[in-house]
Amino acid sequence: MTPAMLARRVDVAGKTVERWLADSGRVPHSDTRMRVAEVLGVDADSLWPQAVRSTLKLGYDREIVASYPQRSMFPQSGWAKLLDGARKRIVMAGYTNYFLWQEHPRIVQRLQARAAAGCQIRFLLGDPDSQLTRDREEIEDVPLTVSTRIRTTLHWLGKVGPEAGIEARFSDSPAHLSQSVFIFDDRLLFTPHIGDGLGDVSPLFHLRRLDEDGLYDRFSQHVDVLWGRGRPVPDVGAGS
Fold first, then answer.
1. If you write DSSP's letter for every residue of 96-159 in order, what string do you get?
2. Please, what is the end-to-end C-alpha distance for the chain in angstroms?
3. b/e for 124-156, b at 16 or more Cβ within 10 A?
4. Cβ-based neighbour number of residue 67 at 10 Å
5. Which positions ≥6 away from 187 have C-beta within 8 Å?
6. Helix (H, G, I), strand (E, B) or coil at 42
7. What CA–CA distance (Å, rounded) separates 216 from 116?
């Protein structure tokens, strides 16, 4: 079946894909282009090459794939694709990583599968008993406290099982608390935390590594420094 035939069967956000493909002047939003391409099993750039030409970047910002006003706007399918597609390295360096267990079905099995396939998986967490965590709890002032969210992640990491070989460390750095970084091989999601809000209402930037010492490398190096200063989490992983 040709892409054109498939396109006639697909409807995204109430608009017919066939109409987009037939009219070269009509280019859907980048998120929609990605979803359509995923359904059709092709590269979005091949469907709308003019969108690539019109947004061609030559500077360091070309590593920015997309940006979102809130982390919650990044689609679940995007998280799943990054998680399932990682072959070498996954690093979850949110302060609590709580959202992962609440928003993504079968995440335990997904992590187990990636670990079994030889992917290195690391979790960097805030210490639930640290003063830094207590101070943040006062700022947020919500019933579901920071320490509770961290302990929820520890609980689920226990469900993944120590035999999976997942590593975990505690971090006491304010630099960790102020921003979350999630790495999946050459892709990276970065969230700078704003004000007293939770992570899901803070912006998110999707990066792709293209150059040495670019944006991706800078954030990846930031995580490596935090990991090197961290302390192993008992009963989860040696974190070596």
1. S-HHHHHHSTTHHHHHHHHHHTT-EEEEEEE-TTSHHHHHHHHHH--SS-HHHHHHHHHHHHHH
2. 50
3. bbbbbebebbeebbeeeeeeebbbebbbbbbeb
4. 14
5. 65, 82, 206, 207, 208, 209
6. coil
7. 26
**Pairwise CA distance, residues 37 & 42, whole Å:** 5
d(CA 61, CA 54): 15
**The model's pTM:** 0.74
Q: Residue-wise pLDDT tens for the chain (240 aa)?
A: 455 554 555 454 445 566 655 655 566 666 676 777 677 766 666 665 665 555 556 677 899 999 999 999 999 999 999 999 999 999 999 999 999 999 888 999 999 999 999 999 999 999 999 999 999 999 888 899 999 999 999 999 999 987 888 999 999 899 898 899 999 999 999 999 887 667 778 999 999 999 899 999 999 999 999 999 999 998 775 443
Chain centroid to CA 151: 20
Cβ atoms of 96 and 153 within 8 Å: the answer is: yes
40: left (phi over 0), alpha (psi -120 to 50) or beta: alpha
